[in-house]
Amino acid sequence: MVELLPRLRRFAIALTGDLDQADDLVQETCVRALSRVDQWQPGTRLDSWMYRIAQNLWVDRARARKVRGEQVEVEAAEALPGTDGRTVAESRLTLDAVSAAMAHLPDEQRVLIALVCVDGLSYKEAAEITHTPIGTVMSRLARARRELHVRLEGPLVQTSQRSEPPKSEGGA
Amino acid sequence: MTEIPDNSKLEGSPYIMPISDEEIMAYADGALPPERRAAVREALAKDPALMEKLESFLFTRGPFARAYDEVLAAPVPDRLLRILQSPAALKPPPRRLRDLFNPRKHKRALAGVRAASFAVATVCAMLVGAWLAGHAARYGVVSFDPYEFVLLDEQGLMAMPGLQQALDRAAGGETAYISRRLSVKLRSTSRNKHGEWCREFELVYASGTKGRGLACRGTGGAWRVEAANVPRVKPYDTAGKGPEKGPHESANPRPGDEVVANEVVEAVKQRLGLEKALAASEEEGLRGRGWLTKP
C-alpha cells in the first residue's frame, strides 16, 4: 500500500485539482482501505480496489458539495493568473494548467481521465472501477479528451498546413 | 485494453464503416482490435479532421497526462505514511473495532497487503523495463517519447499517420510537420536486404532538439519505424526555469545519449543490410510511382 501512495496521490490530484484536497482524499482512502482490508481478495489488483474506494469517496463528497451549493473549482481555476485554461503552444504544461482544464469537466468524465489517461488503466478496468458500461466509458472519455485538448491547446490553426513543409531546405 | 463497442455486425457489407471518435481514441491508445487498425490508419491519412481528433487523444495521453507525473516524484507527506505505518492509531468504524485490535489478525492482513502491493509494484516495473528493453533490442529505439510519431502495433512500431504521410510524400531534404512541436526532415532513401524501401529521417523538435530515425515500408504500404533516437524525456518541470522547450522534450539530455543512440541506429542499418542510397531523381521517381519498384 505504501508503494501505491505516489500513484494514488497523482490520481487524487487529477480528481480534485488541489494538493491538499488530494491528500485528504488519499488519507481517507487509506483509512477506509485498512478498515476493510479483509474485503480485498488476494489475487485481485490492489490498485484497482484502492482506486474504487477513492473514487467512491470522491463522488460522495462531490455530491455533498453540490448539495451545499459550493462551486469553488471552476471559479478558482479561472482566477489563476496566467492560466485561462490554455497554455501557449510552446510553453510547458503545468499542473495548474491541466487542473484548470480538468475543473471544467463533469465529475464522471474527470474520473475516467484520471484512471485512463493519467494512470494508464484500460477502458475495461476503468469501467469496473466506476461501475459504468464500457461503451459509456469510451464515449465519455472521447468527449472529455477532445474538450481538454481544445481548452489547453486551442483548435488547430490550419489542418492543411500539416503536410505542407514550411520551407524546403534544399538537399540533405 | 482490448474491449471496444461491437460494430462488427456490419462486416461484409459493401458500406465503408464510418470511423467513430471512440475508434480513433482506441487507435491512439493501442486498444483497437487489429482488424480495424488498417481502416482507421487509412481514414486518418485521408482526412485532416480525423487527424486533429487523433491529436487530441495522443495529447491527453501524452503531455497532458505527464503534467501530473511530478506528483509521483514528490515526497509523500508524513501524515499519509503514518496512517499506513501505525494502523493502530486509526479510528476504525465501530463494527471493526475488535478486528482492528486483534493484533494477530491485523498483522496477517497487513502483511498480505504489503506483499501484494510489493508484487504489483515489482511486476509493473518489470513490464515497463521489459517493454523498453525489448523494443530497444528489437527495433533499436533508444529513450524516446513515442506518442507523437510511433504506435506499437502487431507488426512492430508503426509510424503515426503524420510520419506515414511525410515518409510517403516528402522529398529528401524536405521538412514536413508531424505535429505542433515536431517536424521531420527526410534524409536518404535506400533498399534493405528484404527488398523493402527504407528512409532515414531527422526529427526536429520546436526547440531545435534533434533526433534521428529509420523507417522501412512494409508490403502493405505502412511504414515501420526500425530505429529512432530521440532525446530523453523528463517529466514536466513546473518551476519554469531554464529555456522554454516543448513539454515532452528533455531539459537535459544526458551526455553520451546521442552517441549511444546513433550507434544503435547504425547497428540497425547494418542488420537491415541497406543498399546504397538513391539519387534524388531516382527517389523522386519512386515516390511518384507510389513506391512501386518497377514502373
Give structural attributes.
heterodimer; A: 8 helices; globular; B: 295 residues; alpha+beta; six-stranded mixed sheet; 11 helices; 8 strands
Number of strands of chain A: 0
Largest interface in this structure:
A-B, 75 and 91 residues
What characterizes the major β-sheet of chain A? none
Number of E strands of chain B: 8
Oligomer: heterodimer
Strand order of the largest sheet of chain B: 1-8-7-6-5-4
N-to-C terminal Cα separation of chain B, in Å? Answer: 43 Å
Query: What is the succession of H and E elements of chain B?
Result: HHHHHHHHEEEHEEEEEHH
Shape of chain A: globular
Poorly predicted residue ranges of chain A: 71-91, 157-172
Structural summary, described in words:
The complex is a heterodimer of chains A (172) and B (295). Chain A is mainly α and 172 residues long. Chain A has helices at residues 5-16, 19-35, 46-68, 72-79, 95-102, 107-118, 123-130, 134-153. Chain A has 8 helices and no strands. In chain A, helix 1 (5-16) packs parallel to helix 3 and helix 6 crosses helix 8 (134-153). Mean pLDDT of chain A is 77; it is low at 71-91 and 157-172. Chain B has 295 residues and is an alpha+beta fold. Chain B has helices at 21-28, 34-46, 48-61, 63-66, 70-73, 78-85, 97-100, 103-139, 161-169, 257-272, 280-288, and strands spanning 141-142, 150-153, 156-159, 175-177, 182-191, 197-205, 210-217, 223-229. In chain B, strands 1-8-7-6-5-4 form a 6-stranded mixed beta sheet, with helices on both faces. In chain B, helix 1 crosses helix 3 and helix 2 (34-46) crosses helix 3 (48-61). The model of chain B is unreliable at 7-14, 87-146 and 233-258 (pLDDT under 50). The interface between A and B is large, with 75 and 91 residues.
